Every structure is written in C-alpha cells, then in structure tokens.
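Q&A FORM
Asked by: J.P.
Topic: structure of TRAP transporter substrate-binding protein DctP

PROVIDED:
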Amino acid sequence: MKTILLSLTMLASLNLHAAVKVGVLAPEGTGWAKNIKKMASEIKDATKGNVEFKIYYGGSQGDEQDVLRKIRIGQLQGGIFTGKTLGEINGDVRVIEIPFTFNHNREKALRTLQAMEPFFDQKFAEKKFKSLATFEIGQVYFVTQKKVTDLNGIKNLKIWSWDGDPIVTNMFESMNLTGVPLALPDVLASLSTGIIDAAYAPPIGMIALQWNTKVKYMIDFPVSYSIGAFVITSDAWAKVSPADQKLTMEIAKKYEKEINLGNAKDNEDALAAMKAQKIEFVKFSDAEIKVAQGYRNAMVKKLTGKLFTPDALKKLEAEIAKK
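REPLIED BY: S.T.
REPLY: Here is the structure written out as tokens.
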C-alpha cells in the first residue's frame, strides 16, 4: 500500500508538458497576432514552460479549412477560427451570427456573446475541443461600387459570397441576392474589374484586405456580428495539469478582454479611415429594420435544427430580451 501511495504521490508531482501547435490566419504584425503572442508567452512563463503554444501565423498552415483538417489528423492541436469554421465544429456558436439580430447595437451583441460563452464552451467540449477564448471580430457591413438606398436595392448587386457558409447561403436565398462565389484573395481584383459590385466584412477586415481602395460606398446598416475563438483539442488540454489549466484559462480570459477592446478600437479606426478616404456611408431608413427582421425570421426558420439547435436559439432570444 505504501508503495502504491508513494507512486501516486510521485506521479501527481510530475509536471505535465503540453506543446500545442496552433494555426492562425492573422499576419504576425497585426494587433490580434501581437496579443496572441503575448498571451502564449505569458502562459509559458506562468506554467514554467509546461504549456507551450507554437503559433503559425499568416496562414502558413493554410486557410481555416486546412488548419481544421490538420487538427483532425493530428498535425496541429489548435486554431483561431472565425464563425464559419467554428460552426463546423459546433454549429450552435453560429446562432450569434444570424443576420439582422443586433443591428447597430454592438454593445448588446458583445454582452450576449459573453453571456452565451459558457454554453458555447460546453458544446465545444462535447465535440472534443477546449475553447480558451472567444472574440468579437466586429459588425459586418456591405461595401459597394454602386449606391443603393434600401435592402431591396442590394438585390441588384453582384455580391461576393463565401462559398460553403450555410449562413451566407441562407441569407442570399432568403433575400434573393446574386452571389458570386470567390476565394477570399480574389475579391480585391474582382471589385476592380467589375466581376462583383459588393462584398461584406467587418471594417478591420476591409482595411486588411484593402477593399477600401476599390469601393465607393459603405452601407451603414450592419448585416451581422462576426466572432472568432481560440480552440484546442481536448486531447491536448488533457495533457495539461489542473494547476496549469487554471493558470492558462486565467491568462487566456485576460487577453480575451484585451483583444476584444483592441478589435473594437481597430474597427472604429477603420471606419474613420474609410470616411477620411471619402467613401460615402449610406444610411437606410428605420423602416428597413422591420424589413430586415422579416428576412431574419425566414433565416431562423430554415437554420434551426440544421445549423444550430433550438436550445441555442432559445438561449439567444432570452439574452436578446434582456435590457
């Protein structure tokens, strides 16, 4: 018995080491990437080297689909993904990105995301992933070459569509929009040549992708609220001792807040930069909110039970109802 107890004591005292390889699309010099790098460094120091993140920036491991595929076959253990890819792991997370849910109210969108984060984390765990942090990327807007004055006018535009995204597909079908599927790197040139008239992204994305140099108008009527998350496999997380798990989560949550604050400021700065470029911000009338709500209702009906569960929708609606 003494031998067994001694062995267990020695085993408990061993420092588990977890080396976690993570794929990230963000280029290394961006504010987002800088914060992730600081977070990884702080976690390594706090855990005395027991938890070490090897971050591959700038899409060096491929796009998000490539990173997720490499995670599934064990070449990587984690990634920082946008909603589309997160939805392939845990469809319930996409409920926060249903178009025309928050309109201009970014603060309410963030509060809702934070309130639902424990629910999302639980769903990730059921899919054998550990979510370390959830981020707001920002409100999504249309930018266009041609001026439109209401939602109906958008139907006359040729709009880039992110192929394979069920929310985008559903929105285009529900609103009867003309989508042109293109790889993300092809959008800039396609705006120049007229292959497309419009695209959509958070402001920080527009600036990073240089779409602001090829458009004349921004529709000041947010389409949706875009999120991201830092997830690793449950197997990788299980290699971290309970004490180091606690330290890792404390630091990750600290940087989650810092990154969200940084993204909010970067989006504000991006909008200001676009205004300074004389890009015209087109406001829709308040009547369009009711029109948008009709589109949202149609999308919710089609997506519930297919992309996200009724339970996720119920939790979202309960949070939205709060003041």
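FOLLOW-UP: The chain has twelve helices and nine strands.
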